[in-house]
Request: fold
Amino acid sequence: MSDRRTFSSKIVTIERYILEQQSDYPEATGALTNLLYDLALSAKMIASHTTRAGLAGILGDTGEENVYGEEVQKLDEFAERTIYRMNDHTGRLAAMASEEEADIIPIPPNYPTGKYVLMYDPLDGSSNIDYNVSVGTIFAIHRRRTLQGPGALEDCLQKGSNLVAAGYIIYGSSTMMVYSTGRGVHGFTLDPRIGEFLLSHPNIRIPDKPKYYSVNQGYQPKWSPAIQKYTAWLQGDNDQKMALSLRYIGSLVADFHRNLLAGGVFYYPAETKGGSKPQGKLRLLYEAAPLAFLAEQAGGYASDGTQRILDIEPTGLQQRVPLFIGSRPLVEKAEEFMKTEEA
Ligand code: AFP
Reply:
C-alpha cells in the first residue's frame, strides 16, 4: 500500500473553499458565495460542451453577428444561455450584461431581484474554437447602485475598483476556474472524473522575473512610435539586455493565464496610422476590468497606457480600451513610453 503521507497537500473543492472564505464575514448573506458557486457550475456545463465540440457537430458559425459585427459561434450561444439560465431566477442579481448583447439583460419580472450585477463574456476567443485552441469565460460582479426594483444601466457602468469579485474559466488542456473576491487570486482545476473543481493554485502571485511578452505583432505597422519602441525594449533594447520571448495565442484568457503564472505582459494597443482600432479591441467591462482586478490581486498591474484600468469610469457597455496587463514593472514601462508620446 502506498504511503498516505506522500501527498502532503489537502484536497479542497471549490465549494468548500468559497464557503470557508464566507465564514470570515459573519455579516455575509451567502448571495455572493452562491453566485460564485453557480458560475462554477455553469463552467462545468460549458466545459462539457467545449471538450465535445467537434463530436457534437456544433462547430461553425450561426451566420448571425453580435453587436460588434463579429460572427457568433454556436458554442458562444450555448455559453451565453447557460450562464443566463443559471442566474436569472436565483434572486441574487439585479441585472446581467453580456458581451454578446447590446443592452443590459433584465431579470424576468416573475423572479426576485438581488443586490449584485453580473457582467460576462461567455466565450472569449471563440474565433479559435474551430482550431482546438483554448477559449475562456470572463466574469465580473458589482454590487448594484440603485436601491431597489429592476437593475439599471448605472448598476453595470461602474469602474473596476468597485468590483466585488471577478474571474475567468479557461477551457484548455484542462479546465480551470480562477477568481478573486479581493483577497488574492485562487485557481481550481476541474477533475472531469469526479466533476469537481479542486484547489490547485492557491494565492497566485505573478513571478518577479517575467518570461513573455504577448501582442499581435502582425499589427506592428499600425502602432505608434511609442509602442514600437516599447516592443523593442521588451525584445532586449534595454539597459539590462533583458529579452523576453514572444507568446501570443489570440485568446485573451489563455494569454493572460499564461502570463499570470509565468510572468510577462500582454498588450493590445490602440492603432494609429489609419488603423481601424483607435481604442484597441478589448472591452473595458467584459475583458479589461475583470482581468485588471485579478492582475492587481496577484501583484501585477493593468493600464490603458496612461491610467490604471480599474480607475476608468465606463461610459458605455461596449466601450473599448487599449490594454497593457501583467507584471507591474513591465506595464509601468509601457506607461513611461506612452508619456514620451504625449510630451
Ligand atoms: P474572438 O472572440 O473574436 O476570437 O476575439 C478574441 C479577442 O477578443 C481576445 O480574446 C483576444 O486577445 C483578441 O480578441 C485577439 O485579437 P486579434 O485576433 O486581433 O489579435
Q: What stands out?
A: The mean pLDDT is 91. The helical segments are 14-22, 31-50, 74-87, 153-156, 225-234, 252-262, 284-297, 328-342.
